[in-house]
C-alpha cells in the first residue's frame, strides 16, 4: 500500500513547514489536510516525516475492554506497535476523545527502538513528562493519565481512519512540526514537496528583505523585480 | 454475524423504554450503551428495534469525494442502503459531525421500502421535514442540508463502529424511543429484554400507586408489601 | 428560608414573560439570572412559578453509586422529591452534565401529586415522552435514558447551588416559560413582579400599535405621546 | 447593492429545498453556504426567500450598552428593523452567542408589518412562544430571554457579516426551510435556482419510482433509461 | 474526616505516576478518578500529594459578589486558604468555568507559607507567570486574569465537591503529576499505593528491557520468564 | 481616533498585571474586558501595551478567497500590516475560529520592523515556532498551519470588532501579559493605570508580608495598621 517517495522528498519534507505544505495543497483544491486539536508533545529537531500506519479505536465496552486483554499479544494496539515498519508514523484514530490516554512511555519506547518515525493520536498520552523528553516525535491532544481501556476498543490496523478531522489512508505521508500535523496523499508527496521546497527557499530570501525593511508590497507576494532579485540570489548561493 | 433473538424479545423491546434498558444493563456493569447527541426525528408509534447494519465514514478528501462518486452503485453509502436486510437498523458512524447531512428523503424511502426497521446516525439528515412525516423511524443529531460529500467519505459496511460515543457491532440490537437510542450486545438481548419487561410491568403498577398518592417510601423501590401487592395484581390481570 | 411573596406577585408571575423579567432585573444590575441550556419539556398553560427547593449532585463514584442506594429512603434524590413543599419548584444542580437522566416519570408524578409547582434540572430527563404529556411543568437540558447513578451522586438538599450557570438559593423565586427559566432573589420578587407586570401591560398596548402599522420610532420605546395614549387606553380598559 | 433576480427565481426558490441548493452550489465549488446552528422557529408554509439586509453586533461593553440606548431611534438594531426593505430578510451577526436574545415579538411584528420576508440570527430570540405562532419566518439558534444589551453592541447595518459561520453580503439571496438557511451569492441565484428546480422536478419523479420499489441502482442517480422515463413523464405532465 | 495514611504511602505516592494509579483503580472498578481539563502550572520536582481540603463556588450574583466582600475575613475563599492544614491540598470546585481566575499569587503564597501540599482548581489562576515559578504545586484549567467575583460565589469549605468531573470528598488523597490529578478515596490509598509502587518497580525493569530491544510480546505485559527475570533483578537491587 | 495617553500611563501599563487591571475595571462596572481563549505565544520581557488597530474577517467564500487575492496590495490583511502605526497593537477578529492561521512569520516580522507594539488574534498563527522566538509580542488561540483563505475573508480595517469575546474599538488600549490580554477603553486608560499602579505597589509590599508569614486577615485586604505600615514603607522606598 506504501508508494515509493523520491529520495529527496523525504529530505525536503524534514525541513518544509506544515504551513507551506497546506498552501501548496490548497492550490490543488485540498482544504482539509491539517489535523485539528493535535499538538507536538516536547520538542523537535527536524520535522517528523513518514508513511502512515494506522490504528483505529471505537468506543470501549465494559465486557470487552477489561484489564486482561493486554495479555493477548494479538491485541491490536500492541500489535500495531510491534509491527509498524521502520520509518513509518503510527497514527491512531481516537475519535478526538481526550478523557483517557491512548499510549504511554513503554509503547513509545518500543516504537522508537523499532525505528518508527513518530506517533500521532487525536487522543491523549500518559507519561507525558518522560515522553516529552524522549528523542521521538509524538503529537497528541494533550496529557491524560487513565488507561485506554476506559474509553477505547482497538479494532483495526492499517484501515482508512480519521485523525484530528482529516482522512488518513495507510501510506499517506505524515508531516509534523511546531504548528501540528499535515497529511499528504502518497501520490502527491513528491510533487508537493518539490514545489513547497522551492517556495520555502524563496520565502527565506523574502524574509531577509522584510527584516531589512522592505514593504510587503512587491515583496510578499513578490513582484517581478523581487522575483528577479531572488533568482539572482539563488544563482549565487 | 446476526444472532437469533427469541421471538418474544423483539415484541418486548418494542414496548420497553430505553430508560429501563439502561438500568438493566447497568446492573450488568454496562455504563455506556446510550448514544449521546442522537435524537428522534418525527414521531414513533412503537420503539424502533432491530439488529444493526453498520456504515462507516471517515473525513472527506476533496479529490475522492466529488459529485461523480454516486454514479458508482458500489459507493458504500448507496450499497449500505441497498443491501440492508429487512428488519435491520442501519447505523452510521459520522464521528458526531453535524455540519452536513448523512442522508435524505430518497435514501430513507428506499430503506423503508426494503423493510428496514429504522436508521440511526450521529450526523444529520437533510429533507428533515418530509422524513419527520414518513412512517419510518429515524434518529439523528439534527437537520442539516449540505450533502455528505463535503465532510464524509464512506469506507466500510458492517464493520465495528462508534455512533454517539457507543460501540456498535453488526448484529447488536438497536432500540430507539423518545429518549434516544440504546445498543444491546446481541448475546444479552433475550435476557435483558425479559428482565426489563418484568421491571416495566411492575413499574406500571407502581405508577398507579404513585398517582393514587402513595409515597416513594415503600413504593419506589417497592418494599415487601408493595411487591406482594404487585404479585396479587399481576395474578389478577 | 422562604420569604413571603405578596399574594398578587404569584399571579403576576404566572403571566409575565421571562424576557420582561430579565429586563427588569438588568435595570437593577443583574445580568446572569437566566439559566443557559435549560429548556421546557412539553407545553405550558401558564408560567411555572414557585420558590426553589434545591438538590445538589456531585460526580458519581463507582463504589458509592450502585443500584442498591435507592433502597434507602434517605437517599437525597428520593428525599428531595418526598419533602418538597407544595407550590415549590425542585431545582437540581447536575453541573450541566447531559449524559444521563436526573429523574423520570415516577419521580415527576410524585412531585405533581405532592403539589409541586414544577421541576428544573440542568441535566436531562428520562421517560421524556410521557413527562412531556403530563400536566406538570418540567425544564431540562433534554431527554436522556441512562439512570443518574452513572454520573451523579446526590449530596445535599436545600443548599445553595448553581443550575444552568445561575446561582440558586433555596427560596429564590423560579419562573419558567417558553424561553426558559429565570431566578429571582426572593427579596426582589414583589417589586420586580409589579414593575414587570406594568411593563407587560404597556407592551401589550404597544404591540397593538405596531400591528396596526406604527413605526418603532416613538412607539417602542414609547415617547410622551404614546405614553399618554397608553394611559388613556389603560384608564378605559 | 441588490441585484435583480429573474421573476421566476423567487418563485423557484420558494419551493426548492436548501438540500438541493447546497448540492447545486457544491458543483460550483461552494462548500460553506449553509448556516451552522441556525434553526427554524415555528413552522413554514413555503420557503423563506429574499435578499439579505444585514445587522452586525460586537460584544457589549457595560458603559455603552445600558438600558437607555433604545431611546435613540438611531440605535442600529431599531434602525435595521425600521429600514429593512419589503421582501428582504434581515440577517443578524451575533457571533453565535446564545446566552441572550437578539430580538423579540415587537421587533418581529414590526418586520412583518413592514413586509420583510423573514429574519435570521445566529443568536437567540425571546418571546419564542408568540413568535413561533406568527406567520413570519424566523430562524435562530434557539430561545433565550435576556435582552441583547447584556451581550451585544449593535454597530453596523448592511456591511458584510458572518452568520452561522457563513459569509453574508447585503443583497445575497437567503433561503430558509425545515433543514435551515442557505446563502446564495446574488449573481448566482438565477442560474442555481433554475438548475435546482430542474433537479427537484426530476427527484420528485425518482421518489415515486423508489416508493414503487425501484432499486437505487439506475434510479438514484438515474441511468440513461431512467432519464428517458423521466423525460417522457415530464413531457406528459 | 481525614483518615491516617501509612507512613510509606505518602512517600510511595510522591513517586508513582497518576497513570499507574488510574490502572490500579481501574482494576477495582473505578473509571472516573482523573480530573479532566486540569493541568500542571509550572514544573514539579516530585508529585503533589496530600489529603483534600475543599472549597465550593456557585455562580456569582451581582448583588452578593461586589468588591467589598473580601474585607470580611470570614469570606470562604480567604478562610479556606487561612485554615487549610499543613500537608493538605486545597481543591476548588469552579464548575469548570474558565472565564475568570479562582486565585492568584498572594493566596498561593499564603498557602505555601502555611505548609499546604498544593492547590487544584478546575477554574483558572491569575498571576500565572509568578505562580509557575513558585516552588508550590498548582494545577488549574489555565491562566486567566479576571477576579473570581465576576463568576464565582464562594459558599462552602470542606463539603463534598466535583472538580474536573471527579467527586472529591474532604480527606480524599490528591495526587498530581505531569499528566494531571488523580483522586483516591482515603480508605483505598494505602492499598493502592503499595500495589502501584510494586507495579512501577516492575515497569522500570520492563522499560530497560524494551530499551534494550525486547519485543512487547512476553515483556509488556510480562510472561512468566520475564516475571522471573524481574524477581531476580529485584532480589539483586 | 486615538486618544492621547499621559506619558506615564504607557510606562505604568508595561508593568501592571492584567489581573490588577481587571480588578480596577470591575470597580467601575466592567466585567468583560479580558479576552477569552487568547494566549501568549512565546515569552514576554515586559507587558505588550499600545492602542488598537483592528482588522476584521468574516467567513471565507470559495470564489472570493482564492490564492490570487494576495497579489493585490490592497488586500485588507496585507494593508493592515503595512499601515499599522508604530506603537500600536494589531488586533484581529477571527470569530474565535481556530481551524486555520490568521498570520505567519513574514507578517509578524513586517509588523515588528514597522514598530508595532504587538499582535493579538482570536484565531491561530502559523510558523508558531519561529514566531515564539521573535522579540515581538504575539497573542493567539494557538498554532495552526493552514492559510487564512480557507476560513477567513478580510473585510475591514479600523472598525469596531470583537476579539476573544470582548469589544475592541480602534484606539482602545491593549495590554497583554502572561495571563492574557485586557482591553481598556482609551478614555479610562490614564485613570485606571494610575490606580492600578498604586494597587500593585501596595500588593508588592503585602506579598513581602505574606511571604514573611503574615495572615491574610488584616493583610490582604489590608486593615488600617497594614495600610499605615505600607505608607511608612512607601515613604522610605
Write a structural description:
The structure is a homohexamer of 237-residue chains. Chain A has 237 residues and is α/β, with parallel strands linked by helices. The first copy, chain A, has two domains: 7-185, Ribonuclease E inhibitor RraA/RraA-like (Glucose Oxidase, domain 1, 3-Layer(bba) Sandwich), CATH 3.50.30.40; 192-236, no CATH class. Chain A has helices spanning 7-15, 18-26, 76-83, 105-113, 128-133, 189-211, 224-236; strands at 39-41, 48-59, 89-93, 118-121, 138-140, 152-157, 161-163, 166-168, 173-177, 180-184. In chain A, α2 packs across α6 (189-211). The model of chain A has no long low-confidence stretch (mean pLDDT 96). Chains B and D meet through α3, α4 and α5 of B and α2 and α6 of D.
SSE blueprint and pairings:
The structure is a homohexamer of 237-residue chains.
Chain A lengths: L6 H9 L2 H9 L12 E3 L6 E12 L16 H8 L5 E5 L11 H9 L4 E4 L6 H6 L4 E3 L11 E6 L3 E3 L2 E3 L4 E5 L2 E5 L4 H23 L12 H13 L1
Parallel strand pairs in A: 2-3, 3-4, 4-5
Antiparallel strand pairs in A: 1-5, 2-6, 2-9, 7-8, 9-10
Helix pairs in contact in A: 1-6, 2-6
List its traits.
Glucose Oxidase, domain 1, 237 residues, elongated, 7 helices, eight-stranded mixed sheet, homohexamer, two-stranded antiparallel sheet, alpha/beta
Concise account of the structure shown:
In chain A, 32% of the residues lie in helices and 21% in strands. Chain A has 7 helices and 10 strands.
Amino acid at each position: 500500500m506504501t508508494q515509493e517517495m523520491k529520495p529527496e522528498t523525504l529530505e525536503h519534507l524534514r525541513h518544509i513547514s506544515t504551513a507551506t505544505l497546506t498552501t501548496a495543497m490548497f492550490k490543488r483544491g485540498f482544504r482539509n489536510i491539517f489535523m485539528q486539536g493535535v499538538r507536538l508533545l516536547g520538542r523537535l529537531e527536524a520535522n517528523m516525516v513518514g508513511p502512515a500506519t494506522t490504528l483505529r479505536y471505537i468506543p470501549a465496552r465494559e465486557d470487552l475492554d477489561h484489564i486482561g486483554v493486554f495479555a493477548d499479544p494479538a491485541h491490536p494496539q500492541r500489535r500495531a506497535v510491534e509491527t509498524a515498519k521502520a520509518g513509518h508514523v503510527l497514527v491512531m484514530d481516537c475519535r478526538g476523545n481526550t478523557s483517557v490516554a491512548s499510549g504511554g512511555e513503554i509503547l513509545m519506547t518500543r516504537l522508537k527502538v523499532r525505528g518508527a518515525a513518530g506517533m500521532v493520536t487525536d487522543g491523549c498520552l500518559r507519561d507525558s513528562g518522560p515522553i516529552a523528553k524522549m528523542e521521538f516525535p509524538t503529537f497528541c491532544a494533550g496529557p491524560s493519565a487513565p488507561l485506554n481501556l476506559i474509553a477505547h476498543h482497538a479494532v483495526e490496523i492499517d484501515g482508512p481512519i480519521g485523525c484530528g478531522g482529516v482522512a488518513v489512508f495507510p501510506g499517506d505521508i505524515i508531516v509534523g512540526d511546531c504548528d501540528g500535523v499535515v497529511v499528504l496523499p502518497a501520490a502527491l508527496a513528491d510533487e508537493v514537496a518539490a514545489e513547497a521546497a522551492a517556495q520555502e527557499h524563496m520565502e527565506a530570501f523574502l524574509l531577509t528583505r522584510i527584516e531589512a525593511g522592505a514593504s510587503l508590497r512587491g515583496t510578499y507576494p513578490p513582484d517581478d523585480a523581487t522575483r528577479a532579485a531572488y533568482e539572482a540570489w539563488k544563482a549565487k548561493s
